[in-house]
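For concreteness, we quote verbatim a single protein encoded this way:
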Amino acid sequence: MSQSLLSGLASDLYVVLTGDQPPPESELTYASLKQRIVHRVAQQPIDSMVEATLAATVLLYWTERGRNPKMQSLADAFWAVTSCIAAVSDAGGATTPLGKLLLGVVMGIGPGLQALIAAEGATHRQVPPPASALDPVVVQRLEHIASVLEQILEHRLATQPVEPPSWPPTASDTP
């Protein structure tokens, strides 16, 4: 491969992994690349998972086609990659050293990306709206309703004690 083709591939890969335009070669270091990838994954875990899956699929197909009878199409490569992500198993059976390395990286990174996606979903479900988003009139009305319901419950419990249910039910318990 020529140097310009490798440079172009590296530049394209940088854009896919970080979502940014690549810096000049003098500023491109392992540390800066890692920092940008970590930031991108933390900010967009679902997009990162999709992009990583598709990139790994294409790379695996490219490295294995013609050398591995199990990799007849992109669908075969996609199945192998997603199997590694979901089950951390080598269902695709890469045969080339580069393919084995790629699937090993997928097995190492895939479950972590899945955990980030799950954490993002849990965070979105548990975060209450900011206080400024709540209408004070509605909040005041709901507090009043809760207060009235508490008074009704206290009165009912004071005038009609609740007997714990008996177990097993007797014939007099059934209508």
